[in-house]
């Protein structure tokens, strides 16, 4: 780095508050503009990302000198913006998949009644599981709740893999019947 570059470059250390304040005043607005144009961020989001970039630099664990502080700041903001975009894409994808899997959330609002209904259904499922023969209950719990394969469950239970499959099928049928009967009896009331 030549002398001119040294004069132009800001060296940021946590101990040098004046250089950080100077960098903030000189760069904040242009960094926000960069974020708005490059990432099509709304003004508030661009300001939040710029603020986060300054905060990350100010709270670095190794606050040694940085050769080109402005480039470092821009790269930090760029990385935060990319991370933010990825997070939003993932959240949107998750929301869409959940919506497809469970239906429109407008049709299934989370209300106190639905929560109570869910708790009652879980209680009925637990009661039904307790009433099952031990091998059937254990096979169901190992495969459906603990996530073991039928082969691993058969090894753990000391029975054949087809026997585990039959136990799981019967347990599933028992649970379905119990929940279905409860639903029918509650709608008749």
Short description:
The protein is built from 8 helices and no strands.
Per DSSP, what share of the residues sits in E-state strands of 2 or more residues?
Answer: under 5%
- What is the subunit organization of this protein? single chain
Secondary-structure content class: mainly alpha
Query: Please, how many helices?
Result: 8
Proportion of residues in helical segments? over 70%
- What is the string of helix and strand elements? HHHHHHHH
Total domain units: 2
How many distinct beta strands? 0
Radius of gyration over alpha carbons? 30 Å
Low confidence ranges:
1-16
Family: Belongs to the sigma-70 factor family. ECF subfamily.
Keywords: DNA-binding, Sigma factor, Transcription, Transcription regulation
Organism: Pseudodesulfovibrio piezophilus (strain DSM 21447 / JCM 15486 / C1TLV30)
Pfam families: Sigma70_r2, Sigma70_r4_2
Describe this structure in words.
This protein has 189 residues and is an all-alpha fold. It folds into two domains: 3-102; 112-188, Orthogonal Bundle (Arc Repressor Mutant, subunit A), CATH 1.10.10. It contains eight helices and no strands. It has helices at residues 3-8, 17-39, 43-58, 69-102, 112-131, 134-145, 150-157, 161-188. α2 (17-39) packs antiparallel against α3 (43-58), α2 (17-39) packs across α4 and α3 (43-58) crosses α4. The longest helix is centred in the middle third of the chain and has 34 residues, at 69-102. Residues 1-16 have low confidence and may be disordered.
